Amino acid sequence: MAAVSAKRTLTVRREVFPIQGTFRISRGAKTEAHVVVAEVEDGGVVGRGECVPYARYGESIDGVVEQIESVAAAIGAGMEQEELLSALPPGAARNAVDCALWDLACKLTGQPIWEVADLDGPLEPVVTAYTLSLDTVENMAAAAKASSRRPLLKLKLTGDGDLERVRAVRENAPDARLIVDANEGWTVEHLKRFGDAFAGLKVELIEQPLPAGQDDALFGVECPVPLGADESCHDRGTLDELRGKYQVVNIKLDKTGGLTEALRLKSDAEDAGFRIMVGCMLASSLAMAPGVVLAQGVDLVDLDGPLWLARDRVPGLKYEGETVFPPEAALWG
């Protein structure tokens, strides 16, 4: 890591990005993406990180801003990523600060993120899923038809009527790979009812079918489609609880509390035999950029957040269809 300046400062701000249309999941809908940006400045060099406070995890914009501000003095005194793991809990606030410190280290050393993070080689482009927002059968069919050339579609589901939704999407996007996300909106009965039919429709993953606090009910349930843990998977401390219930873990920086913990969770999950998915919250390219680092070599990538925004950062990540290219230094890393 680069030497720490005695003049290092941490600042935080709130930003809002309008969404194209409305983004719906089983828990509700939104028309704006509210994010918090942390900046760490050292000798005129600035590192940035972006997070999304998530009410599902008891977070708010105000609360996350307060958490970030609470470590300002420690950051000024030279706190780095390792100490940050103990100073803040897993979550959005730590993510923004952690990613800002990674970005700052790259800019101070002049090294790309793959070298600073001690990865095996330069970052490669990744193929992202494209999300179809929860809607009526007819509207999801139309959305699938408009996106039928994309290789991987992720469908937001809710429970009753989901089989009709998936059938309609499959009819209108016959060649696309499909994954579905219930966002905790199902019961075991839904899972048993839909499992065989979804397998027949070539669905490759069912993400978080049951509420996180109730997913012990998955023990002993045989489903022909692999199950993925999202709301049930946060950091390494939650990994052991997923054994025997899930085959895939969805790692998100806002859950792990930054890239530092996310890279360690990824390694431990792979060692434990889980397949890896890298996901995102609805946010700008600044939040996705460290996700591209995490997504190197994984099975499934869902970093389409900026594609839902009416405007993104400039510069932002480069998207060509389904392909996401590594971030340029002007953005992050």
UniProtKB/TrEMBL annotation:
Residues 137-228 form the Mandelate racemase/muconate lactonizing enzyme C-terminal domain. The keyword Magnesium applies. It comes from the Bacteria. Its EC number is 5.1.1.-. Mg(2+) binds at D181, E207, D230. Binds 1 Mg(2+) ion per subunit. Keywords: Isomerase, Magnesium, Metal-binding. One of its GO terms (biological process) is amino acid catabolic process. The active site is at K156, K252. One of its GO terms (molecular function) is racemase and epimerase activity, acting on amino acids and derivatives. Its cofactor is Mg(2+). InterPro entries: DgoD-like, Dipeptide_epimerase, Enolase-like_C_sf, Enolase-like_N, Enolase_C-like, Mandel_Rmase/mucon_lact_enz_CS, Mandelate_racemase_C, Mandelate_racemase_N_dom. PANTHER family: D-GALACTONATE DEHYDRATASE-RELATED, ENOLASE SUPERFAMILY MEMBER DDB_G0284701. Belongs to the mandelate racemase/muconate lactonizing enzyme family. This is Dipeptide epimerase.
